[in-house]
Write a structure and sequence with these properties.
mainly alpha, MetI-like fold, two-stranded antiparallel ribbon
Length: 311
């Protein structure tokens, strides 16, 4: 027993070099740690406290208990905004993943020109969101926009992308597909990591192109598909800047006051237009819980279809 204790003590010790490396590592990540506590963890804790108060910025917070959370259940605009966000996410996420995978498959076959197209597809992802919203407000314009002009050349009457409530959300989805470059790059990297011998073995067994894609490509990149599914779901439920720029920046939202009222926009307006900081904090924590539940569900179901090499 004493010998076992000695082994445990020796294993628990660190050498001077290990301690030096650990301190160096902590020093390198210290800016991120400090930033996390100041700009992420701190505001989250503060918002949790504010969720139980009536706070308008101008006066000190007043504790109201669960009143803000009770108000969430009776606010019709909250249900409308949450429904809009869910509708957008359900429409956007599958389309974004499908389009990104299709583009990645094409890039994987381009060869030497892949570098140029990689850059071209990724550039929209780093374009400022305000600029994207402004650009697409013009592209989607029912009268002078590029999309409806192109449809007119084909003899098709384009819809009112920015004026018809039934077409506002599809128009926003279309705008979002313009920025799938980051997902394309991830899929391209995953495709290039698939061992070529797997395709050779499949061809020897008589598999056609579709069977190779379904039985080899999809399982081998399923980890990347799962990652992008989670990330895009979270991002879709938090869409804000582009839509706010397009429809709410001038405080005159018109038809978009209902069809384009996404959850984060309603949260922002409650906080910074109406100065209902306590209610907005409760809304933020409701969204956090919804995203957490969806992520847990995705993690649990991923065990059935995500393949990890060596797992």
């Amino acid at each position: 027993m004493s010998q076992l204790w000695q082994v445990v003590r020796l294993k628990g010790r660190t050498t001077p070099l290990q301690r030096k490396e650990m301190l160096a590592g902590l020093a390198f990540i210290s800016p991120w740690i400090v930033g996390f506590f100041i700009f992420t963890a701190g505001p989250m804790v503060a918002s949790l406290g504010l969720a139980f108060t009536d706070y308008d910025v101008l006066n000190p917070p007043k504790f109201v208990g669960l009143q803000n959370f009770q108000a969430l259940t009776t606010d019709p605009r909250l249900g409308l905004s949450l429904g809009n966000s869910i509708f957008y996410a359900v429409l956007h996420v599958p389309l974004a993943l499908t389009v990104a995978l299709a583009l990645a498959l094409l890039l994987n076959r381009v060869g030497k020109a892949a570098g140029f197209f990689r850059t071209a597809f990724y550039l929209p992802s780093i374009t400022p969101a305000v600029a994207v919203g402004t650009l697409w407000l013009w592209i989607l314009n029912p009268r002078i926009g590029l999309i409806n002009r192109g449809l007119a050349l084909l003899g098709i009457a384009g819809p009112g992308w920015t004026t018809d409530p039934n077409w506002i959300k599809p128009g926003i989805v279309l705008m979002s597909l313009w920025s799938v470059g980051g997902t394309v790059i991830l899929y391209l990297a995953a495709l290039r990591n698939v061992p070529p011998e797997l395709y050779e073995a499949a061809r020897i067994d008589g598999a056609n192109s579709w069977q190779q894609f379904r039985r080899v490509t999809i399982p081998m990149i399923s980890g990347t598909i799962f990652f992008t599914l989670v990330v895009n779901t979270i991002a879709s439920l938090q869409i804000f800047t582009e839509v706010y720029t397009m429809y709410f920046g001038n405080m005159n939202s018109g038809a978009a006051s209902s069809a384009g009222l996404f959850y984060n926009i309603y949260l922002f307006r409650q906080a910074f237009e109406f100065l209902h900081m306590g209610y907005a904090s409760a809304m933020a924590w409701l969204l956090f819980i919804i995203i957490l539940i969806l992520t847990v569900i995705q993690l649990r179901t991923s065990r059935r279809w995500v393949y990890y090499e060596g797992g």
